Amino acid sequence: KLLSFRLEKESDAFKMGQSLPNQLYPDLTGMPMSLSPHLRFGSLSIRKFYWSLRFAYMQVHPNSPIPASITSQLIWREYFYCMSVNNPAYNRMKENPICLNIDWYDDEIKFQQWKMGQTGYPWIDACMRQLIQEGWIHQVCRHSTACFLTRGDLWIDWQKGLKVFDSYLLDADWSVCAGNWMWVSSSAFESVLQCTRCICPIRYGRRMDPRGDYVRRYVLELKDMPLQFLFEPWLAPQKVQQEANCIVGQDYPSPMVDHKIASSECKTRMDKIKQRSKDIPHIGPASEAEALSFMWVSMERRDHKMTVCKHNMDIAK
Ligand code: FAD
Ligand code: MG
């Protein structure tokens, strides 16, 4: 049932000429349509999901080639799996040949503030509180909180963040979780650390949660804060804070760092690391053919599978 529900959403997107509906329009307060815990525990076969997506596309656009983008997220999963093969140190910084050694801070107090959703940035706090309460958060929330902890703001070790995700996420997966943490923190998989730009916890939050419903659901202290100040409540005039029953610094924490300053310091550090690591190659598949070869599926076998898949569906009809 869950798979059919998900495939319906995908087909609707295909009809509108889109793909990855869950990414394009993240519905943070709706029912999650993610199947990631099922993929993690094997209660949904990754192959079934992959071929069903392709078949769903074929039904909507019978005469066009199937774009790789519709299954690209699944490929990332395989990619992180492949990259962890024969690397028992894949979830650590030390002795891990693909991970840069970065001199992260070891600040237990700041780390706890991040973990417990007490950073003073409502968007980040909402994400962390949902994680701890419900065991699942959307990709945009994972990306924001991981970036904030590491190269974005706090410069704290990604391995500490990984431990938190690993204990709370329903879909926690050894290869995928560590792979994403290394990627977000620019420790691996970056084309020479191109991505020195980081996520702004105010602007990005506003973009992802334009009506503020998500923040209000998880950060109850701010439930009466006007939308104008919801993502930066410390800017609300004293009178507005009083009316909203939320005095910043008393009922809800003041921001633990100044994002502008913190992120620019992080960027300077990253730039230095970038200078030092010029020769590190980008570790990623170059084309769909290469990605398929990683999965022991050649282009011919893929086309053959599609024919078999269509044949089976015809019989089923
Ligand atoms: P969709 O976008 O619909 O993707 C479909 C499937 O593709 C997912 O169910 C998942 O199996 C796979 N997938 C999607 N994005 C990624 C990705 N970036 N890397 C690898 N596979 C992906 N996903 C996990 O399954 N387990 C984890 O432990 C995990 N840890 C993460 C940690 C961090 C710091 C970040 C940034 C991402 C992490 N992800 C993890 C990846 C991603 O956030 C989730 O897979 C996704 O949010 C699940 O929602 P979905 O099924 O709707 O995703
Ligand atoms: Mg995703």
From TrEMBL:
Listed Pfam families: FAD_binding_7
Site for Electron transfer via tryptophanyl radical, residues: W104, W158, W181
Residues that, per the record, bind FAD: Q73, L74, I75, W76, R77, E78, Y79, F80, D171, A172, D173
Keyword Cytoplasm recorded: yes
Record localization: Cytoplasm, Perinuclear region; Nucleus
Record domain Cryptochrome/DNA photolyase FAD-binding: where: 71-271
Annotated cofactor note: Binds 1 FAD per subunit.
PANTHER family the UniProt entry points to: CRYPTOCHROME, CRYPTOCHROME-1
Protein's recorded name: Cryptochrome-1
Organism from which the protein derives: Arion vulgaris
Gene that this sequence comes from: ORF39044
